[in-house]
Amino acid sequence: MKNSLFIEKAYHNGSFISSEKTFEVINPATLKPIGSLPDLTVKDCQKFIKSADKAWKSWKTTPVGERSKLVRRLFELINEHRDEMAEIMTLESGKPINESQTEVDYANSFMEWFAEEGKRAYGETIPSLAGNARLQTIKQGIGVVAAITPWNFPLAMITRKVAPALVAGCTVVLKPASQTPFSAIALAKLADMAGFPKGVFNVITSKDSKGIGKELATSQLVRKISFTGSTEVGRTLMEQAASTIKRISLELGGNAPFLVFNDADIDLAVKGAIAGKFRNTGQTCVSINRFYVQEDVYAAFCKKLTAAVKNLVVGNGMKKTTQVGPLINKSGLEKVEHHVADALAKGAKIETGGKVIKDLFYEPTVLSNVSPDSLIASEETFGPVCALFKFKTEDEGVKMANDTPFGLASYFYSENVKQCFRVAEQLEAGMVGINAGLISNASAPFGGVKQSGLGREGSKYGLEEYMEIKYLCFGE
Question: Which residues are within 8 A (CB) of 190 and not within 5 positions of it... i.e. 6 or more apart?
């Protein structure tokens, strides 16, 4: 591959490193390897952490203006190498090249946002009740941050963590998913070019996710862990991190509902459904999983959605005409097949799709008349399947939407302003899309409630996740 950012090495303390043991990264569209990376160990991880801790001693005292300039320079370099980053992302994740380019832009918006927001970590002057002291607060970076990121957004899930951490004065040890690590290494190359000091940003590659994760979660030198992934793994990391009482941010699983009310603009709802469901082949944490449609518009919505889904182009992500790529791996495909088979066994009807095309490619699918006791109603499918349920009243629709232990994103369509406020306030989710199928924005807080996680990424709140408030009391 002729790509200056495609590097088959990990990044430690300002240097790209190799190891005798390696692992291959497979392109899910072709099932062929695109390259290999060092399969590093827990002992290697300890060295990464120590380097980050040593670098923190000077990085935390570096003026915020200088830290922000370096993050801004990284933003500029990502823009300059946008196409190279997108190519790497498509080859390792399978997502369509147009989506990869969009993700690079989205990921880079966090670099731009936090390069500015880092300058606004304001403290306060507090009135003293007794009047015999001067009270102030300041905000300081937590320390060494461990960032563990998933495969479905190989760059955006990294920059949402790394950008605020760096401007806050933290150093980072990043463990990217072993399915899609090359995007992280490409970012490390650009960070190196930007001039970040040694040890400030490190990328450890390994197939031993459990071992590396445990080391990052339990290390005394790591002050904060930020994880995006499954609720099951997040629960384990939370338990492990408790041993050192470290700060933790978790962005976990979802089971997003999409409600269509009787007075909704059906064409707009279908457009939002396509955008919110089929991005990255339905493999996103905020992907719509359950479609609840009010009975008066159920037939019309089903017909128009089915027509739109039939027109989606499935194929290799490197083709610019492709809209839907492959599933990430065999287990992901098998879960989709299992959910569809279960729904059909419980009375669902296939409106379109419903079968494997070849290898890891699955037809974009619409299922109608889905039973509430189907697996797809309670589990996140993570695939290109629309499951349609019918409801009668607003209260019933909201109740069905909230009937899940998760609460990351929710969506609904209505032209009634009063209903919009009512429903938005009642939905149990950290984020609500109102007449919108895409909701992510660097300036807005991203995160969930219930078992979808803790903390927020993006916005001013995302910066605070990487800072401690220190109270200063000046006596007279």
Answer: 5, 74, 77, 78, 81
Pair 437, 271: CB distance under 8 Å: yes
Instruction: Looking at the structure, tell me whether residues 167 and 213 fall in a common domain.
Output: yes
Residues shown for the chain? 476
- Which listed residue (103, 251, 351, 465) is catalytic? 251
* pTM for the model: 0.96
Find out whether 337 and 375 touch, Cβ atoms under 8 Å.
no
CATH code: domain of residue 417 = 3.40.309.10
Across-strand partners of 292?
A: 259, 389
Tens of pLDDT, residue by residue over 199-238, are 999 999 999 999 999 999 999 999 999 999 999 999 999 9
104's CB contacts (< 8 A; 6+ apart) are 78, 82, 85, 86, 89, 155
pLDDT band per the 50, 70, 90 thresholds, residue 132? confident
CA 458 to chain centre: 11
Number of domains in the chain: 2
87 is catalytic: no
